[in-house]
Amino acid sequence: MSYVPSTPAQRQEMLRAVGLSSWRELYRDVPADMLLEGELDLPSGMSELEVGRAVSEMAEKNTRFSTILRGAGAYDHYIPALVKSIPAKEEFLTAYTPYQAEMSQGVLQSIFEYQTMICELTGMDVSNASVYDGATAAAEAAAMCRDRKCRVTLISGAAHPDVINTVRTYCYGTGDELRVVPVKDGRTDMDALREMLTAEIASFYVQQPNFFGLLEDCDALGELTHAAGALFVMGCNPISLGVLKTPRDCGADVAVGEGQPLGLPLGYGGPYLGFMATTNKHMRKLPGRIVGETVDAKGERCYVLSLQAREQHIRREKASSNICSNEALCALTASVYLAVMGPQGLKEAAEQCMAKSHYLMRGLTALPGVELVYTGPFFHEFVTSLPRQAEVLAALEQNGILGGLPVEGGVLWCATEKQSRAELDKAIAVVEEVLAK
Amino acid sequence: MKLIFEKSVPGRHCDLLPKCDVDPVELPEGFRRETVPALPELSEVDLARHYTELNHRVHGVNCGFYPLGSCTMKYNPRIDEDMAALPGFTGVHPLAGEKHTAGCREVLDTAAKYLCEITGMEGMTFQPAAGAHGEFTGVLLIKQYHASRGDTKRRKIIVPDSAHGTNPATAAMCGYEVVNIPSAPDGCVDLEALKAVLGEDTAGLMLTNPNTVGLFDENILEITRLVHEAGGLCYYDGANLNAVMGVVRPGDMGFDCIHMNLHKTFATPHGGGGPGACAVGCKAFLKEFLPHSALMDEPGHLQVRAFAGNFLVVVRALTYLLTLGREGIPEAAKNAVLNANYLMRRIQGSFEPAFDRICMHEFVLDLSEYKKETGVSALNVAKSLIDYGMHPPTMYFPMIVHEALMLEPTETESKETLDWAAEIFRELYELGKKDPDFMHNAPHQAQIARPDEVRAARQPVLRWQKG
Fold first, then answer.
1. Is the sign of the CA dihedral B442, B448, B451, B457 positive or negative?
2. Handedness of CA A165, A169, A170, A172 (dihedral sign)
3. For residues B253 and B283, is the Cβ–Cβ distance under 8 A?
4. Preceding peptide of A31 cis, ω within 30°
5. Which residues sit opposite A131 in a β-bridge?
6. Which residue from A87, A163, A4 is spatially nearest to A327, judged by alpha carbons?
7. With contacts defined as CB-CB under 8 Å, which chain B residues touch A352?
8. What's the pLDDT tens digit per position in A92-109?
């Protein structure tokens, strides 16, 4: 099956209508010796029933855990029913980028609403229509902060390893330098940062909460960065912003982050959502699509893709980024999530993340040999030491629980509003049982 | 219509979470949020209706004809959505470990096998999230290759002037100097112009074939041979792969690496601008430079985003590939080409094609003569189509044709739809001669008409503000 609706008879009729007698003539510009001889070395096509069975069998080869206590950049939150059904609607799902404003007011307005919600969440002035994910948002932020004189980017070593490596890759592309600020006791080493903030530094990126779950002293980091004349970029967990001080209030010039916690499934890593917001001062340096409000010929309020003079199809090799799409459907998902939660619901989710993760931490660290590796306030992730690590994690897995992620020095655990006390108690009991053996 | 914030009623909300069953925890002073975000406060029914109203103001390819050239707007099968929504995929944590993610690996490996066979490549990554992101990944392969050989003098990437705007922007993101070469009048590579710029500073060439005017470059083997002789590599922009999949392979044309837009050629939905997904393929000698996640795989490689890419989009593309199989893949390509030629000939006699010869999967109409005659522009015709419920073609691209309208019907449109579309073009052709003013003011029945884009750029309003 190839979803071609024309019947074989119609296809012949159409061929004749264009003055040809065979398929081969359609490809007359292709040199004959280059055409594929025979068929592709692939299986025959399948009916819908068969393909459904084949792909479902693959899905069944993955383990389905009833409880997930692993985060590290991908978080298992409750996804409300409406958040799943709205983006599945045929029109939202199958539209292209809204180039033709007259046929895409729904997409454009939804992005305008998304931009507003991201501004509200972060406290920033301007948001773009989203980028690919949190890691590319960090890389794009580094690029927008560079100017002719200041080319070097600093990133905290306590940021997510994939984020650091993605920023490093983008810097490798343009031939710019990335320097990683050392970590001390699980947080950015403030003294090291002070020394590294030299005249050629364009920006410093910190993740809040950081990869180890800890809260960084962002006010102080921002002050240090600004005192050295560099720009301050914060990578934020959007759910944590239900309770945590906004990047704007911490002095950030650019706020970015991974939007996956806002209603997107884990999905083995994607598609996710990179959000990106800045102050009015840096608005015209913000990469990616941006939707703006205007009026039409009748004076009615409407929305269009705006500020396109920044973009690659106009500036070609002079553009600072080649991005020409966004994760529109993921941005829509995040908007629906934030609208369904509302200000109170988001705060509640954030508070429950904190409460559940601290409950898990207390339960685990009450066990022999399990201790917090780092002290200090955390949001919903923490690192503990764990004796007989492999054995414990395997026992949890046998009980349908995906335990924390092994990291240097221990295990990185996570709990969210999704887990009940009973689930957490069960996990703690399994760990206890293994350690008691 | 009202914005969601303008519908908000203080105190209204949805009940979604149970009461917290463990002790609350307070954030220390200095870390607490000081302001309440002005998110909407609405009930579920308010929200369902708001988003349904928005959805009614969107035109998707599954709702009607969408001949947007170079975007391959083919029908997005529903079974692909069902497969991507399987809990066995949606619930998988990217760091769950190999033992627990065998099904996801099988999806990626099977999709890679199909795409390698279709393109004639030997290595494949799904990490990039979109076409432009794939270009970046592909050109980084070229950069790493030269660097690994200590060949530091190669600073230039050659891009024909008919290329998509992303090509030069990508080369610049990879630190290369962009050398634009003029195309022949038919958008094909001018061999003399190419020879003139090739040299020991050539890192590579970025090329789309069929090219951006919808023609297959018959000199392709000569082009890739010349670049290789100069020590450069050849990058295939797979934007137009739909015309040739299963018929001729980029690997056999002499290309070293390629990106494919899964959201074009392999029928995954565009979602109003994303998420797409991209596969980047390469010959064996470039495999060691493919990107990997520092956390999921081994460190020491480049990576272009976190984790393994837009996995759930790859599930959709794989479902499509399995459905088509070895017969369906070339069948789709051939019918895409047939449909384009049929529509072009059906319109011809009113609006004229820019190139009067057999096209690939898309073709360009040149309205410059018509505009001189009637004052009606490509833009006016495009906007008039909206009143008929047809999404306009790509306008003013490629830039080497003035007053261009580029149509790509794809293979999933029936003869009836193509006949209907051709009739509308012919009708508009006559209308423009009789009543150009009517067309200058089109569309007449759309949600909105002629938004003021200058005002949007000069006085940017990029968010709603509390009244």
1. negative
2. positive
3. no
4. no
5. A274
6. A87
7. 17, 20
8. 999 999 999 999 999 999
Strands B233-237 and B257-261: parallel
Residue from the list A55, A405, A417 with its beta carbon closest to the beta carbon of B83: A55
CA B189-B193-B195 angle, 5° bins? 100
Q: Which residues are B15's β-sheet partners?
A: none
Ordered structural domains, chain B, with CATH: 1-57 (no CATH), 78-322 (3.40.640.10)
| A residues 184-213 closer than 8 Å to B (CB) | none
Q: Is the pLDDT of residue B80 over 70?
A: yes
Which of B32, B315, B358 lies at the smallest CB-CB distance from A55?
Answer: B315
Kind and range of the H or E run holding A381: strand A381-384
Token pair belonging to B229: 């002789």
Nearest alpha-carbon partner for A305 in A95, A94, A93, A101: A101
Q: Average pLDDT in the A165-182 region?
A: 97
Closest CA to A322 of B76, B64, B67, B237: B237
Euclidean distance between CA atoms A285 and A320, whole angstroms: 9
Instruction: Identify whether B18 is preceded by a cis peptide bond (ω within 30 of 0).
Output: no
Please state the ipTM of this predicted complex: 0.97
Euclidean distance between CA atoms A349 and A418, whole angstroms = 9
Kindly report the length of chain B. Answer: 467
Is CATH 3.30.160.390 the right assignment for the domain spanning A81-335?
Answer: no
Q: What is the average pLDDT score of chain A?
A: 96
The end-to-end CA distance of chain A, in Å, is 58
Amino acid, single-letter form, for residue B170: T
Which region among A192-196, A280-284, A401-405, B397-401 has the lowest average model confidence (pLDDT)?
B397-401
Which residues 101-160 of A are in CB contact (within 8 Å) with B? 101-107, 109-113, 115-117, 119-121, 123, 125-127, 129-130, 132-136, 160
Q: For residues A55 and A46, what is the distance between their CA atoms, to the nearest angstrom?
A: 11
Put simply, whether A12 touches B (Cβ < 8 Å) is no
Q: What percent of chain A has pLDDT over 70?
A: 98
DSSP A159: S
Distance CA A67, CA A65 (A): 5
Long-range contacts of A359-365 (CB under 8 A, 24+ apart): A359/A415, A359/A421, A359/A424, A359/B22, A359/B23, A360/A69, A360/A413, A360/A415, A360/A419, A360/A424, A360/A427, A360/A428, A361/A413, A363/A424, A363/A425, A363/A428, A364/A413, A364/A428, A364/A431
Judge if the upstream peptide bond of residue B443 is cis by omega within 30 degrees of 0: yes
Q: Name the percent of chain B lying above pLDDT 90.
A: 91
pLDDT category at A301 given cuts 50, 70, 90 is very high
Residue the block writes with tokens 């003399």 = B192
Q: Is B42 on the interface with A (CB under 8 A)?
A: yes
Q: Which of A172, A168, A170 is nearest to A323 (CA)?
A: A170
- A136 neighbourhood in chain B, CB within 8 Å: 129, 133, 304-305
Q: In this structure, how many other beta carbons lie within 10 angstroms of the beta carbon of residue B394?
A: 22
Quick: pLDDT tens for A206-251.
999 999 999 999 999 999 999 999 999 999 999 999 999 999 999 9
Which of the following CATH numbers is that of domain A67-79+343-436: 3.90.1150.10, 3.30.70.270, 1.20.1250.20, 1.10.490.110? Answer: 3.90.1150.10
Residues A282-303, mean pLDDT to the nearest whole number: 95
Pairing of strands A201-208, A231-236: parallel
User: Which residues share a beta bridge with B349?
Assistant: none
pLDDT at B398: 83
Cα–Cα distance, B42 to B22 (Å, whole number): 28
Burial of A295 (0-12, 13-18, 19+ CB in 10 A): middle
Domain ranges within chain A, ordered by starting residue: 67-79+343-436, 81-335
